[in-house]
Amino acid sequence: MLGEYRIEGRRASEIAASVEHGVGAGALEPGQVLPPMRELATRLGVNPNTVAAAYRTLRERGVIETAGRRGSRVRPRPATTVRGTIRIEAPEGVRDIGEGNPDPALLPPLGEALAAAARHSGERPVLYGRSPVDEDFARAARAALDADGVPGGPVAVTSGSLDAMERVLAAHLKPGDAVAVEDPGWGALLDLVPALGLRPVPVALDDDGPLPDAVERAVREGARAVCVTARAQNPTGAAVGAARAAELRRVLAAHPDVLLIEDDHGHGFVDLPPHPLAGATDRWAFVRSVSKAYGPDLRLATLTGDAVTVDRVQGRQRLGPGWVSVLLQRAVLHLWETGAVDTRAVAAAYGQRRDALVRALAERGVAARGRSGMNVWVPVADETGAVARMLHAGWAVAPGARFRMAAGPGIRLTVSGLTAAGIGTLADAVAAAVGPMPTGSHG
User: Fold this and answer.
1) What is the mean pLDDT of the chain?
2) Can you tell me the distance from the alpha carbon of 220 to that of 212, in angstroms, rounded to the nearest whole number?
3) Which residues face 182 on adjacent strands?
4) Nearest-angstrom CA–CA distance, 185 and 206
5) Could you tell me the end-to-end alpha-carbon distance of the chain, in angstroms, rounded to an integer?
6) What are the residues whose beta carbons fall under 8 Å from the beta carbon of 440, sequence distance 6 or more?
7) CA 131, 135, 140, 143 torsion: positive or negative?
């Protein structure tokens, strides 16, 4: 049943830890059946209730699942992204403000940057054995991080923010470990955590980011990692301010063994400065994607962190894709060096649309959140009904179910494609679809 692996322990906590060790080491594979409780109790010389308590702990931590008479088995990792399927397809004639894409008109043309990268490759071809990170790219990325107060650390490059976060989580955690995530939060991350065999723990937030008391509660109750969005939080637009950052650093400093991951995907299109938490714990990672400011298809993010974390990420990367194309790194570097994106102008464009929509909604008695970035979050009483009514009115919005765990229902509106003339029309449709909400009901 278990091959050569032997579960050990006399207490429930020891038995559970032994199973978790086997799962983490790969000796117990997904789908593998565990011994019946009485059988394992006899083998270990303990009371069956002790094994029952161990199995209960393992179920609560998401390590195993029980299927009645078929017994308990190591939980398989889900292969699908459940939240990604919760979307509204926009029929012809319906405005789609639910996908979360940037405004193509604000993205830079890539032809010159790619041509420059190709010329560089012709002069200095990238072959096996080279560093996975272009030296000039690393230097520019590190300078930008230094300017924003991110602690010193080596630079790695990944295929976007989610790729970086997956690699960092996998580098330090084992199946069943708890991860504190923002709620409502990025749907892809909420899917990724359980797909890795980890257990998401919701953390409430306001416009200044995660609530310190909620983070403290999560880590005190066993969360091994905390994921925080620096600014342009998806879906609420929250941004961690200076005072909130100081509070969160104090909370995290009391738990130095907790892994901290910060997602600064707002770099390049948000005018609020970041207030990094990096360095508050021994193990940390700070991630910056270029997707929203320079183009989603570039599939590139900068990662820095403590030396151990970055080394583990790059070591595992070498055994998979090897590296992120230096052609893409050089193209992004060219965009940076030539100022292809006027970040102030882009931030202002999104800010004007977002702020105008929030104001228009407030004038119609609808509470909404949208401090930074390109999204506005509208709490609603009836999410399904609101989505359907918006679609009937000619607008496809993102259902809040894609982004929430324990948080209240809502809808997400992306302002990227809005014009000044269209904001009033959208606000009218939202007000008709959701009705006025009490001022304090921010979900």
Assistant:
1) 92
2) 12
3) 203
4) 12
5) 47
6) none
7) positive
**DSSP of 80-144, one letter per residue?**
S-TGGG------TT-EE--S-PPPGGGSPP-HHHHHHHHHHHHHS---TTS-SS-HHHHHHHHHH
Angle separating helix axes 187-195 and 161-172, nearest 10 degrees:
30
Cβ within 8 Å of residue 233, ≥6 positions away: 182, 185, 205, 209, 239, 372, 373
pTM: 0.83
Distance CA 211, CA 82 (A): 27
- Classify 5 as helix, strand or coil: coil
Residue 47 is encoded by which pair of tokens?
């009371």
Rounded distance between C-alpha atoms, residue 342 and residue 333, angstroms = 15
- Region at 365 (left for phi over 0; alpha for psi -120 to 50; beta for the rest): left
Strands in 410-414's sheet, in edge-to-edge order, are 375-379, 410-414, 398-399
Query: Which residue pairs from 213-217 have beta carbons closer than 8 angstroms and sit at least 24 positions apart in sequence?
Result: 215/180, 215/248, 215/251, 215/252, 216/251
- Identify residue 389 by its one-letter amino acid code: R
Q: What are the residues whose beta carbons fall under 8 Å from the beta carbon of 252, sequence distance 6 or more? A: 215, 219, 226, 258, 260, 277, 280, 281
Selection from 160, 275, 171 nearest residue 228 by Cα: 275
Q: What is the CA radius of gyration of the chain?
A: 24
Helix axes 383-392, 420-434, angle to 10 degrees: 130
Written as six digits, the tokens of 361 are 């909604």
For 429, the token pair is 């449709």
**CA nearest 369: which of 358, 360, 359?**
358
Q: Give the angle 274-276-277 at the CA atoms, nearest 5°.
A: 150
Joined tokens for residue 393: 């009115």
DSSP percent split of the chain into helix, strand, coil, nearest 5: 45, 15, 40
Alpha-carbon gap, residue 251 to 260, rounded angstroms: 12
Whether the CB-CB separation of 267 and 235 falls below 8 Å is answered with no
Per-residue pLDDT reduced to its tens digit, 266-303: 999 999 999 999 999 999 999 999 999 999 999 999 99
What is the rounded distance in angstroms from the CA atom of residue 366 to the CA atom of residue 431?
Answer: 6
Residue-wise pLDDT tens digits, 299-326: 999 999 999 999 999 999 999 999 999 9
